[in-house]
Amino acid sequence: MDHDRITALGRSLPFYTWYARSPHLERAGQPGVIDLLFGNPHDLPLPEYVETLRRHAEPQDPSWYVYMLDHPPATEVVARDLAAHTSLPWRAEDVAMTTGGWGAIAIAMRMITEPGDEVIYYDPPWFFYDILVRGAEAVPVVLTLDPPRFSPDPQRLADAITPRTRAVLINTPHNPSGRILDAAELEAIAEVLRAASARIGRPIYLLSDEAYRLITLDRQRAPSPAEHYDHTLVLYSYGKQLLAPGNRIGYLAISPRIPDPEPLRQAAMLARFVNGFGFPNNILQRALPDYAHMCVDLDVLRLRRDRLIPVLADRGYDPTTPEGTFYIMARSPEPDDEAFVARMAAEDLFVLPGSTVAMPGWFRISLTASDAMIDAAIERFAKAPTPA
Amino acid sequence: MDHDRITALGRSLPFYTWYARSPHLERAGQPGVIDLLFGNPHDLPLPEYVETLRRHAEPQDPSWYVYMLDHPPATEVVARDLAAHTSLPWRAEDVAMTTGGWGAIAIAMRMITEPGDEVIYYDPPWFFYDILVRGAEAVPVVLTLDPPRFSPDPQRLADAITPRTRAVLINTPHNPSGRILDAAELEAIAEVLRAASARIGRPIYLLSDEAYRLITLDRQRAPSPAEHYDHTLVLYSYGKQLLAPGNRIGYLAISPRIPDPEPLRQAAMLARFVNGFGFPNNILQRALPDYAHMCVDLDVLRLRRDRLIPVLADRGYDPTTPEGTFYIMARSPEPDDEAFVARMAAEDLFVLPGSTVAMPGWFRISLTASDAMIDAAIERFAKAPTPA
């Protein structure tokens, strides 16, 4: 990377630029800090998850810590779970284990793009979509999801597709809006992609970031885009359901509806080689069958959501009501969301400025704070400024 | 990746192509198998290493499994160890933690090359050098190390450098020859690179793969190339000293002699973002200060080496005497090393064909087999064919 490239990639990370100057770096974890910034744990991890990690760290034979590519007991569990969720006939060979959802997105980019190919994604985005597209020498094309519904507009999508479009990256349940796309919305996207693929003469891939698939707040099911569109790659992270993002494991799964999966399987292997052994740690793969169905308490998250929203609404912050994910978006009482966030941070309440996720004038709250932090936040927000 | 690119990258992996058809995939770990194929463990891991992993898997506070970039207690230990080894003033900020040595090489390629830049490496290589150079859109330029000394020829290196040369990748202690480059050899390389950098008007980086730095078999010290050449990036893996390659942790360290390290530090951060969160798992980073000085028993490895060599020599296999690493190279008794290896594999003795590491007519033995396997191998080799 020469100087220009470092600058260009750095510019595609407004979140990281903001965070590098945030007092959160110094204050996180200190007594009295109300930390609603990231989807990071603020309660102890699930004891049964800790127990399974500790058990699988104990060698059961001399090869326990051996080099490991895809571990069949892990890929088999993933395939079974995807089949149960989507009613599609996933096979273990469709599954490429990765170092979390981030690793899955990174290898997807390398698997399917050539330099100059276009990848469409939506604002508000996950922090690192842009750098992952650019890092693979592909060209980001950015569409917008508008509040309050944050629903992709099929016509705008159709208009954005060119002969160089290689993929569309979507995220449902959606960080940060909390929207779960319904069957009609997914079918509308699928129709656009089928027509466009036929027109340009090669399949456009749907990259489906489903990191929050299990984080649904009203006991509903989040449908997978793979149920609607054949050329789908599902990207998943176990970091959300376990609220343990530092233990890096996830996967990329090739839809069983893709007619000739073999080149994609080869590409998934090569992409993980090229990216620096993008396979999850041995212990995390061995333990996966034991923790694959563990999940943080969704009722607790829902209760936090339902306690925060009235307070935020009362202040005139126009909060979203997330169907899934860990996040509430709310309008900043002043147009400069970074200034508002800095003012709150000065009093040790940390939230994310919307401008770091292409939503200037908004801020994001994470429900992964502890109950004590939520209590304190409610008290603090009740006295926070109202919009001018 | 289109079809051509998959094919091209696949062709740069003769090892992987060979291994995908090897009976080892089915037979490894079965009773009676003599497994001298990889640097993989065949004895239980160090109990104190297991204990430290299990201890650090136990959360000590709610943020235990949080997202983690570089963990200062880990980078501080690395900097201290490098300073002790090299007498150079390494700082924690010079250290970028990675998912093993593989991850370190992968980010080095992204950090310093632009598409079309040339990277020189040496045959016999580590299996994945070529794909890591090509995967970063750089161009591999391959020089050869000749037996019995496997010493880089300074004149050949000087002749291979062009204005597009961005880096030279060397490996000492060297897999598979076992050579440890001495101060004179390292100084000769440094002189060539200093002159060439001055000539082409930009620094050529020395990428120093030191994964086996601690695996020295006669209690000697393996000097680091960083002691001789300023523009050095040290690439390290904890997978060798702990013989636990499935627990992915290592680092890239920027020499403190590089005048302006800031752009490289930024590039190391961005490269890990682009490659799919190339930071090691949280638990492995937390535990590092406790296991950083643990190492497999080198006396045991030396004893295995010293027992195998006379048998191999007696058969006329002309074995190397490794100064470091886990490996002995020996000449195949027939010109087609893959045929010889297949014949041995049919009797459940697994060694690596030299043709997979650009040494046709040779085979490689790993000393990480168990003592029982070494005993059985000695018996087997004593009756193996002699060269025609």
CATH topology of the largest domain in chain A: Aspartate Aminotransferase, domain 2
Topology order of chain A in helix (H) and strand (E) letters = HHHEHHEHEHEHEHEEEHHHEHEEEH
Mean residue pLDDT of chain A: 96
CATH architecture level-2 label of the largest domain in chain A: 3-Layer(aba) Sandwich
Number of domains of chain A: 2
Amino- and carboxy-terminal Cα gap of chain A:
46 Å
Secondary structure tally: strands of chain A = 12
Q: In terms of per-residue confidence, which ranges of chain A show pLDDT below 50 for 5 or more consecutive residues? A: none
Written overview of the protein:
The structure is a homodimer of 388-residue chains. With 388 residues, chain A is of the alpha/beta class. The first copy, chain A, has two domains: 3-45 and 297-382, Aspartate Aminotransferase, domain 1; 49-291, Type I PLP-dependent aspartate aminotransferase-like (Major domain) (Aspartate Aminotransferase, domain 2, 3-Layer(aba) Sandwich), CATH 3.40.640. Chain A is 39% helix and 14% strand. Chain A is built from 14 helices and twelve strands. In chain A, strands 2-8-7-6-5-3-4 form a seven-stranded mixed β-sheet, with helices on both faces. In chain A, strand 11 and strand 12 form a beta hairpin. In chain A, helix 4 packs across helix 11, helix 8 runs parallel beside helix 9 (183-200) and helix 12 (298-314) runs parallel beside helix 14. The longest helix of chain A is centred in the middle third of the chain and has 18 residues, at 183-200. The interface between A and B is large, with 75 and 75 residues.
